[in-house]
Amino acid sequence: MTAAEDNELYERLEVEADTSGERLDVFCARVGGNTRSFMQKRIAQGDVLVNGSVGKANTKLRQGDCVEIVLPPPAVTELAAEDIPLSIVYQDADIAVIDKPKSMVVHPAPGNPSGTLVNALMYHVKDLSGIGGELRPGIVHRIDKLTSGLIVIAKNDFAHNSLAAQIKEHSAYRTYVALVDGNLKEDCGTIDAPIGRHRTDRKRMAVVDDGSGREAVTHWSVLHRFGDYTLLKVKLETGRTHQIRVHMAYIKHPVTGDDVYGARTCRFKTDGQMLHAVRLELTHPRTGERMAFFAPLPEYFTSVLRALGLSDVPDLFNEQ
User: Fold this and answer.
1) Per residue in 270-293, pLDDT tens?
2) Which of 9, 29, 179, 295, CA to CA, is 20 to 30 A from 186?
3) How far apart, in Å, are the Cα atoms of 233 and each of 178, 218, 279, 314?
4) Pick the catalytic residue: 25, 94, 144, 181?
């Protein structure tokens, strides 16, 4: 029995023309988001098959080859509270609203076992719901590592269930501010295009039209034009992984600084995409009160706007 047959957790990928001739270890590292040395070890262990046979690291792939990669089991991680500075916008007995900084991962995962929002929450907040599992206490929804802004945390299972239902029904939602490349001609618009996993790069999402994608709707409106860049307010009707980044790239106006879906280089030192969750609206799980929270644009964002000539950032982000 092959490694892939003995393990339900694996990726099956087809080599396309643009990756033909690539070494197996390079291909696996790229599509899996792992280091080349890590994938070389897995290949040596027989965890990677090419057309049903155990591959070698230096195997040159051809168009149409089927590559199967056994996924390692989740690492056992002992979750520890860490005294990491945290901006708590609001907190009561049921919920906490956090202004997550750029570069902070929300919960522990392979490659990020510590230094996450969850580690900080365990130090500063203590009581967290358990529905998300041992590694995701209190986490109802996520926000990308290199996206900053608001995220709501559940402090008990009652609050978690309520917030999860609101997110599913789209009655709890966030508004984002994004700087995108290029000048959008219209003042506002809606992108309605299904999103699913990229066919060959499983770490990426993409607009797909083969029926495998999930409905994704993004509404945007222009806040300010800079000629080569446009500042947008963005609202999500759905909440797919990387939705704003994928949709903006789809209409040829990728989020500035996004080196995954946009340009490889950026004139600004952004360390990732210029995307900030500025407003969060929800109904309090226990009181039923409709609540709105705001997170001002952080320095990394305002410094770029100043460099573009916007010396006085407009107060457009607290509108109802």
Assistant:
1) 888 999 999 999 999 999 999 999
2) 295
3) 6, 11, 10, 12
4) 144
